[in-house]
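Sharing in case it's useful to others searching the archive later.

Someone asked me privately for the predicted structure of Uncaracterized surface protein containing fasciclin (FAS1) repeats, so I'm posting the question and my answer publicly. Question first, with the sequence:
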Amino acid sequence: MKTLLYLPVLLLTLAVCSCGGQAPERSNTADAAPGPGQSAVVDDASNPNIVQVAVGSADHSTLVAALQAADYVDALTNVGPFTVFAPTNAAFDALPAGTLEELVKPENQRKLRDILEYHVLLGVYKSDSFVNRRNLGTADGRSVTVVVAEDRSVRINGAKIIATVPASNGIIHVVDQVLLPK
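And my answer, the predicted structure tokens:
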């Protein structure tokens, strides 16, 4: 039994001695500014992720600007999987006057991010898998309610899904309204 205990100690001693008895040098990364996130990766060969799809859509330029203002681009560029309810530019235009201008101010970044996270589900939810009157948890910790009509059209808190686009890290449901938490 004692022999078995000596073996790990012997191996550890050999490992320390082979390194010159010194611990590896560590750099202080706390002082260094963080580099760009996942959104800085250039990949024109793979299927586009959620943010790349939105950037490529003329109908979602307001959403992209809001993602940038809320510093939420890198989060939606990551692996996921995500389901995103993506309001069109017209949906943002339908907000009360001055709402969007107020939300994109730097001092309102957290509030804007909360609203954007309210449009995100963790996991992939295809239109045909939505269940009527089901509540689904959003990335901000709240929930949205699904309503499936007899014609199989789907509404999320009253916003109608008007198109669906697959992405490499999830799925995008284009909606005709901005979802606002109550």
